[in-house]
User: Fold these one by one.
Assistant:
Number 1:
Amino acid sequence: MIRTAATILRKDLRIELRTRESVPAMALFTVTVYVLFHFGLDRDSLDGELASGVLWVTLLLATVIGVSRLFATEREQGGIDALLLAPVDRTALFLAKAAALFLYLLALEVVAVPAFGLLLLGPDLVDTLPELPAILLLADVGLASVGALVAALAIETRARELIVPLLLLPLLVPLLIGAASATEPLLRGDQAAEGLGRFLALLAAYDAVFVLIAVAVFDFLLDD
Amino acid sequence: MAAAAIELERLERRYGERVALRGVSVRVEVGQTLVVLGANGAGKTTLLRVLATLLRPHGGACRVLGHDLPAAAWEVRGLIGYLGHDPLLYRDLTGRENLGYHARLRGVAPGRVGEQLKAVGMERRADEPVRELSKGMVQRLAVARATLHDPALLLLDEPRANLDPGAAEQLEPLIGRGSGRTRVMVTHDVEGGLTEADLALGLRGASQAFALRAAGVSPSEARGLYA
């Protein structure tokens, strides 16, 4: 199954590198929203809850773009039939799509987090950004697993552009709470924040639950 | 009696409330060719997709290569080659990359990719993105994909669409009678289909109009399906 997932993932990454359809769109959207906040809020810098909320809500909305495009090549070029015709475990498809989305999110954050720091954080708080990776990684696992699940649910629906955000965003509320709450003390300049471990545990539990749910139901989602 | 390659007994398939196939019964022996004839919407593609395990049968019995569908869909998938309207190739990958991807998915030796490209006459254009190839060339690659794993049963939907006579001749050893494979072939070429087939299945309005030896069906009778 891992070998099959790696084959599908390699194919997805090769197509993304050639077409540059998902990651650049996600990054451009995110930077544009940060620019809008920079001018719209008319403040020199943000901190605490507001900064954390702006960071995470924007990343979640950018994830919607990635999820909407996750099965685009399969849908538009018949790849899903080719996968269903092959004697492969369909869980491998979930693993590959979730891994692809995870890598897209990492690539997005390489651009988005420095842009966020530059446009919306004061110079003191920019130093806190190196503390973020653990939160980002845990959140990305959750975003990728729920995103792959929702993308598969929407693949055969005609109104998939509506279905993806309508299904995805409510499912991401616990993740948003965990990620934003874990990030907020860092963006207050509180490096030794209390409760950080609790919120990281919440994110880890969310990841585990949705990875297990996805593995359990993915086969049925693609069945006729 | 030897096991048949395909045994259908009052096969039924619906899309919601709409019946797409009803009461289809046919038996195809190993190595035989079944041609499926009928007007647009008669259920030909639906039948192919049921046999390919892409759609579940909703009624009747469906046995393919000794396996009951949908229960044994997994076993059947490794044994069939499906050539539908869509080539099932990624346009942003080259022909070689597409075949390599399908070979890895199916556990086929990588060397087989080169053999298939040669067999369909696409060696020289194998490293160009599929989006830059003509429809005929894409169809050649689709044939290479469908036969990559040396399937026992071929499910062919207008297999010679977009092919010039030379290409059609070149692909005969892979998808024609000479392949020695059991074949189910959907075509609108009534005369050609009847000549090539052992059995003929006529579909009209999602129901079976006839299932006879091809030699016993006159072209005029078959053309009546399109009236």
Note: DSSP finds eleven helices and no strands in chain A.
Number 2:
Amino acid sequence: MTKHPSEEKSLYLPRVAEITSVETIAQKEKLFEFNFQDGKELGHKPGQFVEISIFGIGEMPISISSSPTKKGAFELAVRAVGDVTNALHRLSKGATVGIRGPFGNGFPVDEFTGKDVLVIAGGIGLFPLRSLINYVVDNRKNFGRLIILSGSKTANERMLVNELERWQVMEGVELLETVDIGNEKWGGTIGPVTTLFSQIDIIPQNTFAVTVGPPVMYKFVIGECQKKGIPDERILMSLERRMKCGVGKCGHCQINGVYVCQEGPVFSYARIKKDKLTEAI
Amino acid sequence: MTEKVLSKQNLNIFINTLLSRGEEIVGVKKKEGKYAFGKIADAEEVCLDYDITLLPPSMYLLPQREALLKFNIAERPVAFPVIEANPFILFGVHPYDIKAIELLDTAFSTDNLDTNYLNRREAATIVGVDCLNPNPNAFCPSMDTAFTDKGYDLLLTDIGDSYVIAIGSEKGQELLKGCPDTQEATQVELKRKEEERQKALGKYKVALDTPLEKLPQLLDKSWNSPLWDERSESCLSCGSCVMVCPTCFCFDVQDDIELNLVEGERYRQKDACMLVDFAAVAGEGNFRKDKVSRYRHRMYRKGKYIMERFGRPGCVGCGRCASACLAEIASPAETFNLMKGESK
């Protein structure tokens, strides 16, 4: 130990952040923008997460939805499913919350330089991937193609529709969408997100695949990526667990011997196989 | 450092001297035919020839419940860290529990310094005592925890009418200054200490069939063993094995708010990977919803994960879990030996 422990700050004390805007995305999903009261930046990488506190209710991990290229404020897109997320949904502009982080490794964006990026999003997996997509979009020259495959449960549950439309028309961005269950208005592809793989043509040696979605989706997406010839080292996924502490102590996020909050949440399929992370997917 | 000798009578005087000068002593007392750590009011209460305590002394460093923050949400929410650490003496800690504390020291100071734990740890003075009457479920020699030459400030060994005292730190040396009539230990007394230790080694009834350093390899091969299902079938998912464990340090974090709905605290409390919702996430997901996956996870932490991460095993062989388990399936030694038998 180099420092006297009492000289070190508490690992568990959040910084105070103010909600500067709230936008309703869908029935149970909202996009929140935050600013730290001390004026500092969050200083994150795409794919990292924060622990958000509503004092009196609790704390929980949420992926960061904004790109670090967005200066000043940061954004979290949140589905109301538990105590903390429902409490957050009841807050409006001007309210304050606690934030710890950023935590986790994030996507290895430096390795993506000059390469094509294939993003595969399932449902609200699009929320953390939005950070990566906008990072690539804002640093367009540094990367090759950006291909986005997005799958939703129903046509009414498409997330971030305005943003999808923005990416759709953007030069150098290829966006394909599918829904599990369509409706009268939906004229697009119907089926799971893996359906879209047959519609794309990629150069596997030059492509990184990045996927976030419900746990059940991963093994099918990995299979499709492998069929396309993408090496396991370049098939990346974010393994979402309930990180209670975010600092590698509490044990809740453990996958086999790995603390997801420290060594993840982003893992390559090669790493999952090498370390025999049988609990991962 | 040279070792000292103190008569049993003088040890009592020593303890009472410490108490009279206001030291807080937490030691082992009799409790309904068993033993438990608790606050000591008089030297007469202190038991040093116990086999095992119900709960481990590490609960005084990582309490069952501990405040992390105090907050006030009257207008703008404000939160303050809570770090409680008052000096105290942990008296009569067995070597396996000392080694368990060393594991906690490593876990809470690796990568991110956990100030709540480390400040409390620094406030603690540890007086150990050699375990000469092991619990029938213990397998300390297999886990290299029957004896220790570090991790304590003082360490006592009962040699009949007196104790040999090993000094492990300056803090221990300082503490001993208040002790009446300590003598330099003679060669004869040191020999008796060694004999007592050897006798104790002969009393253990459980042993591992696998060398300690080979445990990770054994488990590496055993993931798909049908034994996991067989062993975990009768598990009650009660978490008792974890709650009594000196090396388990996983915790849950919760908020509590006063009836005035303004002030409150965020606290952590010991949590157990054997409880059904340990790996549950919001919505309906649970990454370890079957008891077999929880049971296997605990055993892998004990014999593989912790060892690979921190370089020391996640089990010290104290046998508390085996004593606490109503289904009689909690002993890591028994489980590892079955795995070993199967892998032959």
Note: Chain B has two domains: 4-201, 212-343.
Number 3:
Amino acid sequence: MLLRFFLMGLDRKAGIVLTILAILAVAVPAMTLWVPADSPFHLSIFTVSLLGKYLCFALLALALDLVWGYCGILSLGHAAFFALGGYAMGMYLMRQIGPRGVYGNPVLPDFMVFLNWKELPWYWLGFDHFWFAAIMVLVVPGALAFAFGWFAFRSRVTGVYLSIITQALTFALLLAFFRNDMGFGGNNGLTDFKDILGYDIQADTTRVALFVATVAALALSYMIASGVIGSKLGKVLVALRDAESRVRFMGYDTESYKLFAWTLSACMAGVAGALYVPQVGIINPSEFAPASSIEAVIWVAVGGRGTLAGAILGAVLVNMGKSYFTGALPELWLFALGGLFVAVTLFLPKGLLGMGAQLKAKLPGRKASPLPTAQTANQATGQTAGQKGA
Amino acid sequence: MSAESTLLYLDGVSVSFDGFKALKGLSLVMMPGEMRAIIGPNGAGKTTMMDVITGKTRPDTGTILFEGDTDLTRLREAAIANLGIGRKFQRPTVFEPHTVWDNLELALKAPRRPLKTLTYAISRDDRARIEEILDITRLSALRSRQAGSLSHGQKQWLEIGMLLAQDPKLLLVDEPVAGMTDAETEQTAELLCSIAGKHSVIVVEHDMSFVRALGVKVTVLAEGSVLAEGSLDAVSANQQVIDTYLGR
């Protein structure tokens, strides 16, 4: 049954995405570890971590696309789930430091010693085990999303109001995590990690392994997402995105459908955050900043909302642009990002992946679609869906 | 009249929105297998009546029973739909990004829980049923077309097909022939008549020739309550009805 589920989502597009990811998983380690450093094909370890970071963002974008593109829920707080997953992993990494911290306390992380805490708070218990942290990476974002979604969807909060609440959620978490007495390191967050699963977190092989793990997580999430989208449940999601009350009158309890997709998406975002933290070496409350969530929305819009592959593409491209701009022209980055969002909204409403179809439709003398009416009808629905989502 | 043998039983149903009384003590009884046409001027409460039956609006007072014993005023939309009450909206609402086939598959009577739909695989019976409905609604050739690209009339038909797929005991149909050509109107009347018998149907319609073609008992609503009931000829002759509706 599980196999059938995965096969359901496997179309040509999924084949391309998974092939690219498979090539990355093989080529990047080979080019880093085995190609000699003076060869033009050598990849520096810095590049590997940078690519790993992009793919974590791609996974966040994929999670966001699942709810925004297919259920019409525009989340402006998805980075909250990403950061919670990151904190769960960060807590494990903090516990792995042990007596090697500045204060040499075998149990308490440095910041707790600094705050004169005598013992570990109860919610830090268990995080010395990787398996426990790994479960929490899924459970904490998932449980928060479930509780949030339960109340929001049942109260029939939709559209822009829901977006605003998600924004408030991430902002509330931002403020909470800034507080020192929350026990998550306050402003500085969690950092100075040493080991993961007993391996030195700075070692080249560990960094390559983390990259491969990220590729694997992205590939698996992509397969799950496209399996869900390809199933009848996915069709219900798209249907309720465009005409929720109609779906209700058909006997589907739309709230539980949204809750399913929303919780699944939050778990994926949590995994993305958990893989991000060991690769960048720090997690702090700034990850909860509303701007991070909004940036994720831009990645999805640029790549093409409601396409899954577009979310991955958009996240990688925009972040490559960000890396370039913040290095070369740092003061221009925010203008470039804003301009990009305006340009995509105006000229590429379906994102980069939708650009091909859009161009074909405009080319004179070439019939892109046997049904010109279908083309306009699609655009019309796309627009109304967009307005509902916005 | 006792509620037990009825399919739908509305008694003294009132709804008001911000002081405006949309329904004032509306009472209506439908027997199993019956088909009923509801007419009335704009604002008579026709759509509000459908809203209270399907759970979209909660009545302030009054009783609404389905099959004599299920109190519809306490249930949510999805639960009411699963009892076997289907609804067709005034504006055709089909799922535009989906194909005609997928629209029918979504509507088809089947378990509605998320985990059931996640693992759903179409069975031979389901396939045959969808084929049958495509045939009835004359959409067989268009099965792989996106529903958004259908003509207005075809969308109306698809929506009726979706209701058939849902296989409800009671069908509420809101202005099914609005915007249809005469030929389409005639075909739709035929289609609805062929549905009645197996399903009970309530049709709300403005088009008098269509109501005549249906040839069923007519209920006239005005200002939120029943003004007259009977055959179309009988209600057409009713002076009150002429004054409030037909005469204008």
Note: Residues 45-71 of chain A form the longest helix (27 residues).
Number 4:
Amino acid sequence: MTPVLSVRNVSKSFGGLKAVDNVSFDVHQGEILGLIGPNGSGKSTLFNCVLGQLPSSTGTVLVDGKEVAGKRPCDLNKLGVGRTFQMLQVFPEMTVLDNIILAGQEHKGTMLSRLFGKPDAGLTEEALRMIDFFRLGHQTHEKAGSLSYGQQKLLDAAMAFMAGPKLVMLDEPAGGVNLTMLGDLKERLKAFNRERGATFVVIEHNMEFVMSLCTRIIVLANGRIIAEGDPETVRNDPTVIEAYLGG
Amino acid sequence: MSKRTLATLVAGLAILILLPFTQSNYGVFVLCSWLVYSISAMGLNLTLGYAGQVSLAQASFMGIGAYTTALMTMAGVPWPAAMIAAMVLCFVIGLLLGYPALRVQHHFLAFITLAFNALVVLVLRNEEWLTGGTYGIVGIPRPELFGLQTQKPLAFYFFVLALFVLMAVALYAIIRSPWGRAFKALRENPIRANSLGVDIRKTTLLAFAIGSSYGGLAGSLLAQLTQFIDPHSFGLTISLKVLLMVIVGGAGFFFGPILGALLIVLAPEFLRFTEGYYLMIYAVLVIVLMIFCPTGLLGLVERARTALKLRQNPNATTWEAGR
């Protein structure tokens, strides 16, 4: 089967610094892949190369077997790649409902048909289901900016899922989220993966969160993959321990 | 739309229909100016208030619209064709002016649009063979509708009112549509919007183009209203005036620019008794408003309404309070 995401020999240099050094991996349908590594190991740069925010110096990225180099983020999204950001990224002055509808509307019809079609692009029902799924039902008509930080993180994730993407890339979804909300988030992500066969790639610093969420983990250090495997293997790998503790 | 909103709108429209009958010719002229500037400010509100793209060039589009209409109708082209041509031309030029906005934002964009406005005024002033230079163009005909002349102030007022209502309804439809949502998303977080499939390039360009075409129509009507145009009527001060209308009324509120235009057009009339002090008083009022209410008058109304509801029911969510 064609992998959902295939990263082939991707490198990215900033001047003399090799932030990502010849990284290759595949992500298959239904997987939750964790991407971990100490600060400065190249995780975010790799993410940005895959998502078209940064051009990679060399290498190719395939989504569903199709080369996506040079595609703008909006085109990549239309190909079925959703994402969340490390920093909070919601539309604070819009309601939760409008945030979610926006996340789906660009996948409905053409630009012209959207102008003359229904104001909600026929998405209200689906949006309400998504809002309930992420347990934000009582906040539907609140401005997104008035939600708590954790709730905004949930909304951010819900937006990434709204268009029914094949692949969702989550950049530190657990950052700054309290323990209760963290449990909620993990459980919702797992439910989404189970029920809809969604595929995730997750960057995260919270080890407990990654170990209990992901089915496979890749460890980066100095821009290179130093270990790969299921959570248990990675946890006991001496090179990983060395990279984190600076041996 | 709630029943109460609908009733308010119907009442408002009734007032707009009846009001001119109580006014002198000059009063009707002032009302016409208000509606014309409202159309222009509505357009800028789309570009700036909803889509978040700063523009200091709205008057230049009014100028392009005014000169296009004047030159075409005086050359014998039927007025509907001339007015549509004015809007289409402004749409296309607005699209082009949108390109810098893809690279720069905020005050840099303000400077680029400001330079564009200056450029348009220079062209209007220097290309005398076409525009009549500083003398402008005199004797622009008013439209004739099904054999009815709009030469009389009252008739022309209703012509302007009809177009004002049409343009307001069109804008409302745009803002309520997914396009409106995309414009707001562009204003609030372009990077996130892009990652959710919003084509930032097209959305930005459209925000400029649609807003500019509203400016074009306003200019077109202004030419017919005053029947005389010169480059001075479309200078940077007028762009700033339209910007002030949007900001004072409340950028990003549908009725903001209409209220703003009302205040800015009427203020000189009410402050006439102060004679020479008019501009000083006016400036102080604007400064005070901007300090205490940067979201404009409608922003102030919204804040007061929310506070009042919260006092009555402290447990209400902000949504319930805002209703």
Note: Chain B has one domain: 23-292.
